[in-house]
Inverse folding.
């Protein structure tokens, strides 16, 4: 059976509280191996770490999500730096910039994002990026601060921006949106990118694919999204599984 890596799954959140163990069991049966679990706010870090500690195939990332910028305190940055040293998560994330959501404080987003990039660089950890309507600004900061690579989650930028991420040691995450026929631009991008650019993700419980529209997304659906990528690229599914898993393990330091 092919092995897939879900590079972005919020399995720690309340949506999965009633049946988390069952969901993980079904994901494993479907061939999903390592699952990366990014944080969004400091208040959830302890719970997230506890969920991951109970499962050898769950890998935590700690960070402060830009959409919740109003909830983050300066002390959270000090706590993050300390935890990276003491608890050594897989990555720093989910961090980034969101210029799509209205009424978010852009200046504070920028300050928190830049600080987290420096923390990640100093800790030698990759970053997991959330970027909406802000790729050029993010790329400029990445070029200046130079964290050790990572993943641009739910990538929706241009082919030119994709090339700049690749030059900086990043991979690009694709998931359920590829399964929608209306996603023509995203499908064209996934078709055009080189193999070394691509990793798979679900972003569960959000961003469900076409066959689960309106439902809770789940890591067990990752093979469906891999099939969508294989169809878009005209490649056999086992090949897609092999190189996306290799890419994820290489950029995040997951044991092969």
């Amino acid at each position: 059976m092919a092995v897939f890596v879900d590079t972005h799954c919020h399995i720690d959140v309340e949506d999965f509280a009633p049946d988390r163990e069952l969901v993980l069991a079904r994901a494993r049966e479907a061939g999903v191996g390592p699952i990366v679990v990014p944080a969004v706010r400091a208040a959830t870090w302890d719970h997230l770490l506890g969920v991951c500690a109970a499962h050898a195939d769950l890998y935590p990332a700690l960070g402060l999500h830009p959409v919740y910028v109003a909830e983050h305190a300066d002390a959270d940055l000090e706590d993050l730096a300390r935890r990276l040293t003491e608890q050594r998560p897989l990555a720093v994330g989910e961090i980034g910039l969101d210029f799509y959501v209205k009424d978010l404080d852009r200046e504070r987003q920028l300050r928190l994002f830049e600080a987290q990039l420096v923390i990640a660089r100093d800790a030698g950890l990759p970053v997991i990026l959330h970027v909406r309507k802000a790729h050029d600004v993010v790329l400029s900061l990445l070029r200046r601060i130079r964290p050790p690579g990572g993943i641009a989650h739910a990538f929706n930028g241009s082919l030119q921006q994709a090339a700049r991420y690749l030059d900086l040691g990043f991979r690009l995450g694709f998931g359920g949106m590829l399964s929608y026929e209306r996603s023509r631009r995203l499908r064209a991008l996934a078709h055009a990118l080189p193999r070394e650019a691509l990793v798979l993700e679900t972003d569960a419980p959000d961003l469900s694919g076409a066959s689960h529209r309106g439902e809770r997304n789940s890591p067990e659906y990752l093979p469906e999204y891999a099939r969508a990528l294989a169809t878009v690229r005209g490649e056999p599914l086992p090949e897609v599984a092999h190189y996306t898993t290799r890419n994820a393990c290489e950029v995040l330091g997951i044991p092969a």
In short: The chain has one domain: 4-206+218-252. The longest strand covers residues 91-98. The beta strands are 4-6, 32-38, 58-62, 91-98, 127-132, 150-152, 170-174, 198-200. The chain has a mean pLDDT of 97.
